Amino acid sequence: MNRRDVLKHAGGAAVLAGMPGALMAREGGLNVPPEDAPHQRTFMQWPNSRAVYDDAEFLRMTQATIAEIANTIAAFEPVTLLAAEGHHARIGRMVSGDVELWDIPTEDLWCRDAGPLFAHRPDGALVVSHLQFNGWGNKQVDTHDSQIATRVADRLGLPVVPSGLVGEAGGVDHDGHGLLIGHESSWVIDNRNPGLSRDEIEARLLAAYGATRMIWAPGLRGQDITDYHIDSLARFTGPNRALINLPDEPDEGDPLHMAALDTHDALIAGGVEVEVIPEPWERRVNSFDFVASYANYYVCNGAVIAAEFGDAETDEIAREALARHYPGREVIMLNVDPLGEHGGGIHCATQQMPA
Questions:
Q1: Which of 61, 98, 271, 325 keeps 20 to 30 A from 9, CA to CA?
Q2: Is residue 14 a part of any domain in this protein?
Q3: Which residue of the set 59, 148, 348, 349 is catalytic?
């Protein structure tokens, strides 16, 4: 199944109880560091569910891509790959010795959304600031994936601080200095947070990340399984500074193009310095729902891991932009087309554990 499909599969809905999430998180004074701060390790997930991947060959291609990403990151920092123990022998033949395998069952690969969001308390102690995953609004099976964040926290012996929200870390980006951006379409929606207003959701997100201000853009509901996550479009690269991936010639008849322009305008109106990276004109995969996002990169210790799509000109423009925004880091660009076919990218497949 493609993540840009909206066919519903069975998935568990989260039940959140107790005091409001904003109060729970704020009492702990949480702070999620920027992605370019030092990491202890990167977490990733092994895709394996035939309820998600009904094409065995495509599943094998996707698994090979995940192994390559893990091996690439492992040259710079430790990588922990989550998978049920029965998969470990095969995975071990595909990954380097620097990739550690943990026996935590998974269905799909999207660790940005299902994995733990780590935050520091004022004394420096690490906790999991918990956004409850529910298969992007019960659109995909998530029997295991909805439990990953708490299972990782349990193995690490870390407290879990509930946010009071159902949602995904790929649906919000933060500069690590007090500013968030997100699309209303993936947060203010009944399949995640019924009965909560945008203001209530904003207060809980600010508390969960330790931020002070949020920029909202409308986004687009129902076009893809995520309801238009921000991390495939726009990313903060520093305080009040961002990159955004836009088509050179937006199609006024394409709702995604128009929503992307709205996000660009919201960033500008919010006082953010924005650099535009063009989408690739030529690419190896030409299906209309292929996600060709240069913005869906991952920053690890000493490197930026990004996608290339086979367009020599725009691939180089993206490489140069990333090098400017992350000076002193090696920029490594990989062919991750199976992830684009499945509706995501490298950032979607990773989750950092800060030092």
A1: 61
A2: no
A3: 348
